[in-house]
Write a structure and sequence with these properties.
By secondary structure, the chain is α/β, with parallel strands linked by helices. The protein is about 30% helix and about 10% strand. It has a single domain (about 15-215), classed as Uracil-DNA glycosylase-like domain (Uracil-DNA Glycosylase, subunit E, 3-Layer(aba) Sandwich), CATH 3.40.470.10. InterPro entries: UDG_fam1 (IPR002043), Ura-DNA_Glyclase_AS (IPR018085), Uracil-DNA_glycosylase-like (IPR005122), Uracil-DNA_glycosylase-like_sf (IPR036895).
Length: about 230
């Protein structure tokens, strides 16, 4: 069994996703990632690939924040979209997320880039692609991860209680087609990358809009503050 085989057996995602692990694409994907790890650095480390599913249970998921692929710099990716561990400088996209969070809700940046506080409140920090080769953005696209993460989105969409899907950037926004907006809410904008943040991310107020959608359904809002 290769390292990327899902470590979700102790979570409530397993019965919902285990059918994927017997499909041909899954074996091909794992063989590809194993070969990549044998010849180059791949991020995040194998034991952190499924961190989003470990930290936010299916039952608890109230918000899905969808990224693209993991950070491709050494020491950055740890299995949660946009997040980096404490002690790692927040990348530019995350700095822009914090800027919009301040403009939207007046929340000051925490002084680090670890977003685990959000996961504990039911925010699933999911990337569409779960691994990447060092220094090569998009290098693991089209190998099967998107098939798997689309299934994650489908099972979340099956929840009867409202979920807010935060979709930033064109690849994430294309996933809106997987969301039943008669039950759920899509909040979408440009990506927070410095290349696109000024094209509709800044000023989009995603955090207050998410909370408004949750409260409209009688659900508790997310406390977007991150402990320093």
């Amino acid at each position: 069994m290769v390292p990327e085989s899902p470590v979700v057996g102790t979570t409530d995602w397993n019965p919902l996703l285990r059918g994927e692990f017997d499909k041909p694409y899954w074996a091909e994907l794992q063989a590809f990632v194993a070969a990549e790890r044998a010849r180059a650095e791949v991020f995040p480390p194998a034991d952190q690939v499924f961190a989003a599913l470990h930290l936010t249970s299916y039952a608890a998921t109230r918000v899905v924040l969808l990224g693209q692929d993991p950070y491709h710099g050494r020491g950055q990716a740890h299995g949660l979209c946009f997040s980096v561990r404490r002690g790692v400088a927040p990348p530019p996209s995350l700095q822009n997320v914090f800027r919009e969070l301040h403009d939207d809700l007046g929340v000051d940046p925490p002084g680090h880039g670890n977003l685990e506080a959000w996961t504990m409140q039911g925010v699933l920090l999911l990337n569409t692609c779960l691994t990447v080769r060092s220094g090569a953005a998009g290098s693991h696209h089209g190998k099967g991860w998107e098939t798997f993460t689309d299934e994650v989105l489908r099972v979340v969409n099956a929840k009867t209680e409202r979920v807010v899907f935060l979709l930033w950037g064109a690849p994430a926004r294309r996933k809106a087609a997987l969301v039943d907006t008669s039950r759920h809410v899509v909040v979408q904008s440009a990506h927070p990358s410095p290349l696109s943040a000024h094209q509709g991310f800044f000023g989009s107020r995603p955090f207050s809009r998410t909370n408004a959608a949750l409260e409209e359904a009688g659900l508790a809002p997310i406390d977007w503050r991150i402990p320093a």
